[in-house]
């Protein structure tokens, strides 16, 4: 009898332990997700068609004094109304991936031109739960790690010197020259131009377009790889390159070692005018844009236990504004100046990359970290999951001042729920990430490139880029601070006539005045 009782107790304990392992159950997961969806997108914006709990694991990143678990589940959502998840000015795909706790590749069904009522979105999701007084409470959605980018050495365009000399030699020896030295010089100059152009186009056709992106695991490199994966199906071969960021990207365009590049509109404007970090190079008047991609917003991060509530509280503090020579650093000095803080006088600038700065912030080595980046910023998203950091807003009066004085800046906000531990909307400024090239790109090449980019907008989220959900023809001319390539302008005009996007331009960044590009075609600039 004793043996039977012991056996029953063991079975009972196993059943109880198994039940504990299944906590929180599917119903708790559903209720928590429904509450957060309603808070961010509005009550009843989504119906949870199904939610299936898949299992759980110990959260290896949890504090030593807490018991946490990561719970995995599959979910199907149905939109109950038309919703713009690719919009620039209200909760979209960025907030959705955070609320669900998924990587961009784990979500299917988000449309860049807008989802209709009845559309379904499926996701492999996750959430972190903490045990408190015997029950499990939701702490945050689980984060995801950005993929490593591969550095492709053959992305640097090979010099055409040898081919040029060989071809010129063949042509010049076969052409009977007149005795006129002037005529010989004219022929030589025209041959050089023609051979250079032909060789350049052939090299790009065969080897691909060197694509200056950004640092490893950065948002730019993730976007570039996602775009390249989709563009190759349109027979456009892009070769993403790891770089230090937008300043180097533009330098690579200038010296011909990249054909296309990513950079924020404010940095592009500095390069075009030869200002800021480009002052020593002079104006880059050959710089052209192929279109606007997605918004990049100013993030200013402090510790959660800090007494800092706004930017004016940063007086006398240590702030990371990025490495020396970075364009974003110049913009942040303008942002702080609009709040009455003078560079090198009212605060101390720390020269570190954003990911390093977040670690320094957690270690109380600095007081704030700043970065202009697409949302959700992967490194910040991971840090915010632990609820140790928070964002601070810009003053609305300063925002108005900034957007009136700087044509590259827009009045935008970070929607509530975009990051864990950030339920309220954060007022800030932003700019547009631009796809850049030079006037050397031919009309046909620009046309093919633009078609590939804005076709890809439908699939970039699933290809790995959260920001890709915001790429749309509708927003392709927002904040163009440098002239648009004529071939790109023509391509966008054709696409706009054939496509029927439902999305509309955000009200707060409707065009106020045009900027005429080199083709005489008006492109959109932000409201002043």
From TrEMBL:
Source organism per UniProt: Candidatus Kinetoplastidibacterium galati TCC219
Domain of life of the source: Bacteria
Lineage, top ranks: Bacteria, Pseudomonadati, Pseudomonadota, Betaproteobacteria, Candidatus Kinetoplastidibacterium
PANTHER family reported in the protein's UniProt record: SLL1037 PROTEIN
Pfam short name (any one): NMT1_3
Listed InterPro entries: TRAP_TAXI
Listed name of the protein: TRAP-type uncharacterized transporter, periplasmic component
